[in-house]
Each structure stands twice: as structure tokens, then as C-alpha cells.
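Lab notebook, design round three. We kept the backbone fixed and only want residue identities now. Task for the bench partner: fill in a sequence for the structure below.
Input C-alpha cells:
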């Protein structure tokens, strides 16, 4: 699974302005001919990214190339079950990628349109945000 090798700060704040704004970077295809673009806000976990990657790879049967354009670098903390109030913040449990509407999450090259569309559809079902299939002009 994807996660940072080293981090400057082990625990992050959630962020005050969650669910606002649209993507101003990584909002266009850069590497492949086909892409999967988000159309809503959300956090995508490292497990979801891996599940989507495996679904695409399995469908295209090692043909073509896939690029993952997002990286889970935000730690999400959790306290243990039945821990009393106080005692500080919990330990980092997993990592997420913050997604804005318009972010291109995956790109694909080297397969035909129908195969790419179906592979991206399968990958989109593994993610927690609504997605859209896009094609390079």
C-alpha cells in the first residue's frame, strides 16, 4: 500500500476548509490517453487506491500502462476502543489523499477505448467519490 516513507509531522489537523474549492492542479490528462476524474470532494484511503489499481490491472490483463496521480500523505488518527476521555490524540491509523472535484486520479495508455472505459468504471466503484471517465482530445 502507498504511504509516505518519512513525514515531517506525525499527526495532522483535519483542516478547517474541508469540502470547498475545485482542483486547480492535476486537473488535466498529463501521461495517458484516458483518465478517471473525481466530480466531488472526499478522502481516498491508501487501501481504496490499491483496490482500484488492482481492479484496473486485472481487467486489462497486463496490457497498457497505468499512472496513479494521487498519493495518500495525510495521516488519520484513531484512538483505541473503549478509551476514556482525555489522554491526548490517537495514533496514526492510516493515510488518505485529499480529493477535490476535477482531480485526475488515474490515467491509462496502450489499450482501446472500450477496455479503458470498463477498467476505469471498475476502479471507480472501489473509490469513495463519484468519478467520470475522460478521454484526451
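Proposed sequence:
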Amino acid at each position: 500500500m502507498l504511504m509516505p516513507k518519512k513525514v515531517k509531522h506525525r499527526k495532522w489537523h483535519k483542516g478547517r476548509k474541508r469540502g470547498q474549492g475545485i482542483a486547480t492542479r492535476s486537473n488535466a490528462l498529463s501521461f495517458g490517453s484516458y483518465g478517471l476524474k473525481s466530480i466531488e470532494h472526499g478522502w481516498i484511503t491508501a487501501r481504496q487506491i490499491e483496490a482500484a489499481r488492482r481492479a484496473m490491472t486485472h481487467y486489462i490483463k497486463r496490457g497498457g500502462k497505468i499512472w496513479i496521480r494521487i498519493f495518500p500523505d495525510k495521516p488519520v488518527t484513531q484512538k483505541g476502543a473503549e478509551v476514556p476521555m482525555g489522554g491526548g490524540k490517537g495514533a496514526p491509523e492510516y493515510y488518505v489523499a485529499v480529493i477535490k472535484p476535477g482531480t485526475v486520479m488515474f490515467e491509462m495508455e496502450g489499450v482501446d477505448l472500450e477496455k479503458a472505459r470498463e477498467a476505469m468504471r471498475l476502479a471507480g466503484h472501489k473509490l469513495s467519490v463519484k468519478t467520470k471517465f475522460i478521454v484526451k482530445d
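Keep this in mind before ordering anything: The radius of gyration is 17 Å.
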